[in-house]
Design brief:
about 425 residues, S-adenosylmethionine decarboxylase, 2 domains, 12 helices, about 25% helix
């Protein structure tokens, strides 16, 4: 479990004071003496992982950039199409690497003592292997303490930004067929679901995300009877959908049945029995394949996906959006999870371009979800009925009252205001 949990103290690249070596080659930063800084670096969607030469060149450049002294490099190639394992031995300790080119993944350890800067290795490795996603976990080694160090879950939305949530209790950890999954408790946010190094939802603020994702398209549509949810294995979007008595049938399609099973067990406050509603149909399948093949048609399609890595990557493709268009009724609405534009602006740009190829009206609307750090969360909006986005406030208010639902964040005024985009997000749309 230590691979997925960051039990760390800030050091090295996070420290305002430059590290300096003591007489015994320990490191001294901000009044704390310790053996050195250890970085665990995960690269997903990486390239150049199946040949020794680019890996050796990257290790040599990383060593020099960190200010370390290279003693030797040992690398072993496991054969054609297979990975490489090895280590750069440095006077200040080591940089080790093990690659899985068939999975486009590499695991790298950087440990350095004295006054080296191991953080210098990160941009070098990014340039060498061009990963789609990077996670860096940092730990100070060799600190003597009688008190146990707090455990933290660390995520990186961007290679240069990190967010850490304190873990008060790990409820479950498992490598499923599709995800690295953890459910844990946080003192402020309650229970938290994390997949593949990214926070998916928390009991503390999930209502903002799920209410805006669901009620905005359903109330704008005004006559939604059949709703498709792609992803959303925690059940929050399904819960909000089924609060509308007008919805006769809601289909939830998720690729990982383990996510649903564990959400039933550990996140009942989020799904609130929605999986057992008679109107709900749960389908374990690849969402991109489902929308291409289903004969059903839906008034609203809600894409409650992970970030565009691993299984979630296909749910940001033009082919997937074409499939969603295929299974929408005339005048139907597609909404999507599109990340935090301040740190994931390319998701907005790419989704806008891909959706525009299939829908007459494409835009985004916004909501502030505290857990998704970096600013506003963006939701994609696509429909061939250009009037739905401009539904008057009076109509939205009347539909909201008729639905007889109580919401904690969403209201008709927020509904309309969410479509007012700041200029920097408009610029991302071209």
């Amino acid at each position: 479990m230590s691979d997925a949990v960051s039990a760390v103290q800030t050091a090295g690249m996070c420290a305002p004071e430059k590290a300096r070596a003591t007489s015994n080659y320990f490191t001294f930063v901000d009044g704390v003496e310790f053996a050195g800084t250890h970085l665990l670096i995960d690269l997903w969607g990486a390239t150049n992982l199946g040949e020794i030469d680019p890996i050796e060149a990257a290790l040599r450049e990383a060593t020099a950039t960190c200010g370390a002294s290279l003693l030797d490099i040992h690398l072993h190639h496991f054969g054609e199409g297979a990975g490489v394992t090895g280590v750069a031995i440095i006077a200040e300790s080591h940089i080790s690497i093990h690659t899985w080119p068939e999975r486009n993944y590499a695991a790298i350890d950087v440990f350095m003592c004295a006054d080296c800067d191991p953080a210098g290795a990160v941009p070098v490795l990014k340039a060498a292997f061009q990963p789609a996603r990077v996670r860096v976990t940092e730990e100070r080694r060799g600190i003597e303490t009688s008190a146990p160090e707090p455990r933290w879950y660390e995520e990186t939305l961007d290679p240069d930004l990190r967010q850490r949530l304190r873990i008060s209790k790990v409820l479950h950890y498992e490598k499923t067929a599709h995800h690295d999954l953890m459910v844990f408790e946080n003192p402020s946010l309650g229970r938290v679901l994390a997949l593949d190094g990214a926070i998916q939802t928390t009991e503390g603020d999930e209502y903002v995300y799920h209410e805006m994702l669901v009620h905005t398209p359903i109330l704008a549509h005004g006559r939604a009877r059949r709703v498709l949810i792609v992803g959303g294995g925690d059940g929050g979007a399904l819960r909000e959908t089924l609060r509308h008595d007008s919805v006769e049938h809601a289909v939830l399609v998720d690729i990982d049945e383990t996510v649903i099973a564990l959400s039933r067990k550990y996140l009942p406050k989020i799904n609130a029995g929605a999986f057992d509603d008679a109107r709900a149909e749960i389908v374990i399948a690849d969402g991109s394949s489902f929308v291409r093949r289903t004969e059903n048609r839906f008034d609203v399609v809600i894409v409650d996906s992970t970030d565009p890595i691993g299984p979630g990557e296909a749910l940001f493709s033009e082919a997937f959006y074409a499939g969603c268009k295929r299974c929408l009724t005339p005048g139907g609405i597609l909404v999507t999870q599109n990340g935090v534009p301040a740190v994931q602006g390319n998701e907005v740009t790419q989704s806008y371009q891909r959706l525009r190829a299939h829908f007459a009206d494409v835009t985004f609307y916004l909501a502030p979800v505290p857990t998704y750090h970096g600013g506003f969360m963006a939701f994609g909006w696509a429909s061939d009925d250009v009037s739905l986005r401009a539904t008057p406030l009076e109509k939205i208010e009347a539909r909201y009252r008729a639905a007889e639902i109580t919401t904690r964040y969403y209201n008709p005024e927020i509904h309309l205001a969410a479509f007012a985009l700041p200029n920097d997000i408009r610029a991302l749309m071209g």
